[in-house]
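Regression report. Comparing outputs from two consecutive submissions.

Submission 1:
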Amino acid sequence: MKRSMTSLMTYLPLLFLCTACAVAPQAEKPAIQLQSLSYDEALQAYRSAARDENYRCIHQTADDLYKASTDAQIVAIVIDDVLYLKRDGVLLELGQVEISEKAAHYTSADARIEAGYSIIKQFNFSEYNESDDRNVELWVKTPEGTQHLKTFGNRCGI
């Protein structure tokens, strides 16, 4: 009996170590990585479907105070009722499914990717209020997870 107790005490630390490893928390899903895109490539894709641009908004990455640096990348472009994003080297086109004065919601044709935004603040209105700059909360949802970004909307309007 004493021998089996000694044997058990020898293996007990190993048992605890194995148990601790087995219940380690799972790693969080990796963040979605949007890539920089240009207005020209979004406009070319839009026009390739025989559409003419009336409205546009270029979203640049911003800090917590919604300030875009001079080298901030463009991560989303809205042309009329279409939102363009770039991921894994592919230009994505999402169609508008809902819009209000301060928000919009978009989805891809296969409904695997959704995106949307909420306007936090509008300022620098043009003389006839046809365009403005804006602070925006942008979100993108894919099967891999959801990413939230603060963006600066540059010259949004006609």
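Submission 2:
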Amino acid sequence: VSSGGGFAGLPEPRGDNLAPLSVGYFGSLNFAKLHPAYVEFLSAVNLPTFKVRLIGDLLNREILERQSDDAGRSGMLEFRGYTTDVMAELRTINVMAYLLNPQHYGTAENALLEAMAMGIVPVVLDNPAENNIVEHQRTGFIVRNPNEFADAIEWLANNPKERSRMGMQAATSIRTRFTLERMEASFRTHYKEVMKKQKRLVQFQHIFGTTPEEWFLSCQAEPEIFREDGEICLPASSLSYFNLLEKTKGSVFHFLSHFPDATRLQAWAKKLESQK
């Protein structure tokens, strides 16, 4: 069951075999979502006029521009900013360089689904959510490193007819798999199975704990990061770091805003603030 659905009302794919390559990204530039090495992937592409339109908030713009300058690819990124007319922006691209942090918090990936439903070919990383949506070399490309990303982009640039065909297949796949009717039927099937089970009392404190700190830790993929003494043990190379800095999304700051008297939450939040 996906929370994505209802794409029939989006513009139909154009199927333009002759259009030149036009690459974009649609979504947050927060490194908790966007891959922190995004520019490294883009810089591997060996096309003289290669650019990427970034559609969404302008968070981390200065960092991304500096990374592009350092890579000798000044002007590679075109920042479009936040827009209320997403469809108009998506009509300007035919490939989506949707490279996300492997530890990202996304599930339904509505931005990816909307783009594919419009016939835009996605190039994504081998992350669980994206892997469940994109079929490699049929409805898009799943890559693992900058070299594979560059190969995919260059192939899409040099094979416009195949790119168009792949975009049409992407649109058909999304518009078929993610209808509201299918999602409702899937929900109903699950509920029917649950209703057959014997009723029982669930002691949620055994699952989530009894204190704000325990509730917080029960929601963490890596609870061992947060130590009993208020310290944080985070590997320097961990991509989870960016998720921990979120003000919402179930972060320590999110929990602390609701439980301001929780002493260990205070200590963990203070430690993270000092590491920014």
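Expected: both submissions complete independently.
Actual: both completed, but the second showed a warning that disappeared on reload.
Relevant detail on submission 2: The two ends are 37 Å apart (CA to CA).
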